[in-house]
Each structure stands twice: as C-alpha cells, then as structure tokens.
C-alpha cells in the first residue's frame, strides 16, 4: 500500500541535494544551467548531457553530487509546489548585476521562503562593464536579506554564466549550504518520488521523467504515478544511457506508463500490480466526476 514506514537512522544514507534555479526573466537562469551542464560531466564519463529530461545530476571534481531541476520557465517547480510536492532542497536565485531586484526575483524569494527552502544568490553578468553587484546586495539588504558580504547569513556569489567566472564557487556554496541540511534517504526500499515532466514520444510511447526521492527504482518495477500506472520497461539517465536502477536524488526517464502523469504527481512502486491498477482507475473515475461537476457549475 501507499502508507510509508518510518526509516530508522541506520537505514539512512547521504543523498545529493536537489536544486532549482529561479529568477527574473533574462537574468541568466538558462545560461547558468547550460554552463553547469556543459562543464560538469560525471567523472569518468565521456560525452556530456545529451537528453533534456527536465533534471540532471552533476558530479564535481571532489566527487560531490548536485541534482538540478531544469524545467522550462520553472512551471514544473510552481506546479509541484502548488500540488504540495516539496522536491527542492535549495534554490539558486539568479539576479543580473546590470539590472535590479525585479518583481519575478521577489516572487522567487517568497516562493523559496514559503517553502522553507534555503536560498543562495547568484549575482550574474559581472563580466559586463555596467554590472554593479554591490547595488544588488544593497537592494537585498533593504529587503532584510543580508548576504554574507554584508554581515548576514545568506550565501551569495558574484559570477558570470557567460565566462564561467564564479560558477565553481557558487557550486561550493550550494554544497556547503546543503551540508547543513544533512540530507539523507533510505536507498533499500521500493522507490517513491515525484514526476518532473512527461510527454508522448511517437516511437517510444509515454516518456516520464521522475525524480527518485527515496528507495531504489528498478527496471521491471510496477509504478503508480498520479492516474497512470505500468511496469517500468526501460530507464535512461540524462546522457541517454540505459540504467537498471536509480537511487535517491536521481532523475531518470522511464518508459512503460500507460499515460502522461502530471508534473508534481507522486509515484510509488507496488508489489501488487492489481492494487496499483485499481487505485489508478479510482483516481481516473474521481477526476471524471470532478470535471463533470466543474462543467455543470
Ligand atoms: P533567463 O531568461 O533567466 O533564462 O536568461 P538567459 O539565460 O536566457 O539570459 C538572457 C540573456 O542574458 C541572454 O542573451 C544571455 O546570453 C545573457 N547572459 C546571461 N548570462 C550572462 C552573463 O553572465 N554575462 C553576459 N554578458 N550576458 C549574459
């Protein structure tokens, strides 16, 4: 069943932090995520990240890992939050140093604060002559957000997503902040997690990117995700490589669900296929009744 059993301390193992990048349009979110994706290839792997699956993991030179949620316009993050799925451990909020703290920046800050997610500021575009990172930090201070340079506790890093200057330092600060969270999960149980995105591929059927949050997902597992269900036929990582198993904080795209679950849907592995099917059917029925009711009102 879906009921979760509490893990004991000795079952828990450290896991990678799950990080979202947010900020005002054009302040450099995409550029920063692209730079990180291109520069940080899993140690020993040839070839970079080839698939856009909405999330990816990077491994730094010292072996530490970070999982990035990389969803266009961060709709998924908003959708996930709206549906009560708390996935993100940390938020990087990008602010362009040639601009100011803008409405969407403020919105991102309140989203993160409401979710209780620590913030690391990325003060971007410092390669530009007109950049004034101190002005940004002053604006933040006026909002009661004191960064470390200003005697506060919030981490911030001046950087350029274009030249890469400051990006390694940003990732170090993210890991430092993550350490304080003492993130752990039990890898030795049936997987649970959250759907990041899903789409219908002409040749392969429904492809769903899911983020395993606890346990280990294996090929052959029977999964219930929102109103969809099915046996995992194949799993791929962000490099397009087939994988047999995925542990906590790992994003994978899976094949085998009978539909496209929604971003933010929880998924669970079931030992009993019939139980998963009957819950999926009940959810579909409820959804139908609900949409009939909405049409009537
Ligand atoms: P997003 O809307 O937040 O995803 O912003 P983008 O990553 O698309 O960046 C918006 C624009 O700013 C693009 O033209 C980028 O090339 C440019 N840009 C982003 N980061 C930097 C930077 O560090 N330095 C400079 N000079 N330009 C940047």
UniProtKB/TrEMBL annotation:
Record keywords: Cytoplasm, GTP-binding, Initiation factor, Nucleotide-binding, Protein biosynthesis
Gene Ontology CC annotations of this record: cytoplasm
MF term (GO), any: translation initiation factor activity
Keyword Protein biosynthesis assigned: yes
Binding-site positions, GTP: 23-30, 70-74, 124-127
Subcellular localization(s) per the UniProt record: Cytoplasm
Sequence ranges assigned to domain Tr-type G in this UniProt record: 14-184
Record function comment: One of the essential components for the initiation of protein synthesis. Protects formylmethionyl-tRNA from spontaneous hydrolysis and promotes its binding to the 30S ribosomal subunits. Also involved in the hydrolysis of GTP during the formation of the 70S ribosomal complex.
Family: Belongs to the TRAFAC class translation factor GTPase superfamily. Classic translation factor GTPase family. IF-2 subfamily.
Protein name: Translation initiation factor IF-2
Provenance organism: Nonlabens ponticola
Gene that encodes it: infB
């Amino acid at each position: 069943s879906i009921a979760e059993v509490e893990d004991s301390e000795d079952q828990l193992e450290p896991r990678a932090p799950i990080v979202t990048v947010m900020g005002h349009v054009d302040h450099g979110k995409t550029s920063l995520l692209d730079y990180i994706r291109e520069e940080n290839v899993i140690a020993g792997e040839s070839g970079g990240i080839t698939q856009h699956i909405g999330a990816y993991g990077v491994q730094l030179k010292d072996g530490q890992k970070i999982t990035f949620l990389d969803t266009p316009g961060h709709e998924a993050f908003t959708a996930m939050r709206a549906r009560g799925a708390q996935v993100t451990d940390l938020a990087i909020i990008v602010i362009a140093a040639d601009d100011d703290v803008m409405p969407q920046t403020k919105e991102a800050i309140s989203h993160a604060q409401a979710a209780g997610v620590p913030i690391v500021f990325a003060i971007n575009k410092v390669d530009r002559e007109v950049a004034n990172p101190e002005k940004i930090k002053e604006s933040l201070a006026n909002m009661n957000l004191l960064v470390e340079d200003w005697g506060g506790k919030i981490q911030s890093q001046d950087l350029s997503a274009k030249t890469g200057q400051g990006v390694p330092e940003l990732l170090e600060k993210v890991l430092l902040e993550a350490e304080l969270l003492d993130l752990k999960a039990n890898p030795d149980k049936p997987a649970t997690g959250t759907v990041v995105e899903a789409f219908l591929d002409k040749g392969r059927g429904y492809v769903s990117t899911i983020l395993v949050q606890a346990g280990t997902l294996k090929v052959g597992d029977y999964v219930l995700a929102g109103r969809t269900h099915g046996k995992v036929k194949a799993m791929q990582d962000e490099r397009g490589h087939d994988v047999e198993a995925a542990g906590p904080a790992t994003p994978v795209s899976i094949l085998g669900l009978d539909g496209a679950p929604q971003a933010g849907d929880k998924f669970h592995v079931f030992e009993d296929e019939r139980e998963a099917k009957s819950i999926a059917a009940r959810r579909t029925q409820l959804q139908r009744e609900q949409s009939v009711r909405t049409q009537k009102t």
